[in-house]
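Help needed: design a sequence for this.
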């Protein structure tokens, strides 16, 4: 199998590490060679973060270069736009519509860009934008945005739902299991 590349991007504290762990567990049980990068960026300060997940028959490096990502999963809208040059032709962006103001917007030095989904689509990019925060709250916690997005991403793979649920069970504490399963299903149906 040709190597597939998934970038998980967002703002520090949104749960990209858990999302990559979940994906990694699932792909390992499927027998793929997998490489997952560390979280890069200001993960503890609300800054931009990126994690690479690569899988296939044989993967030699965890790094994804520009124009190589099959999927970009973005926890925040501006982060989706920030990383578009990494998307390969025919790739898909799965993004949360939530907007988290970066420091230049907070200080008044800049404005949050308007109509980002429309701008990405007008650049001929395939964008699937969902209100993952609303769905996460519906599941029981705003912290489940990451699992909502993993649920939506799951629609692009032919893995059984039971395989995804097993990966969730192995990735989250038991007391949050029902909430995360509900969040995953809401994202899958979105």
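Sure. Designed sequence:
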């Amino acid at each position: 199998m040709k190597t597939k590349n998934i970038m998980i991007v967002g703002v520090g504290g949104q749960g990209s590490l858990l999302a990559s762990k979940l994906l990694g567990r699932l792909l390992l049980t499927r027998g793929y060679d997998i490489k997952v990068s560390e979280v890069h960026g200001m993960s503890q300060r609300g800054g931009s973060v990126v994690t690479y997940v690569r899988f296939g028959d044989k993967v030699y490096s965890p790094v994804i270069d520009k124009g190589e990502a099959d999927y970009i999963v973005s926890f925040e809208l501006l982060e989706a736009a920030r990383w578009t040059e990494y998307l390969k032709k025919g790739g898909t962006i799965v993004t949360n519509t939530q907007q988290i103001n970066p420091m230049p917007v907070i200080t008044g030095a800049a404005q949050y860009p308007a109509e980002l989904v429309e701008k990405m689509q007008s650049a001929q990019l395939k964008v699937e934008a969902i209100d993952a925060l609303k769905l996460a709250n519906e599941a029981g916690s705003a912290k489940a945005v990451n699992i909502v997005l993993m649920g939506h991403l799951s629609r692009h793979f032919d893995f059984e739902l039971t395989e995804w649920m097993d990966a969730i069970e192995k990735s989250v504490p038991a007391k949050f299991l029902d909430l995360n399963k509900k969040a995953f299903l809401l994202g899958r149906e979105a």
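The mean pLDDT is 93.
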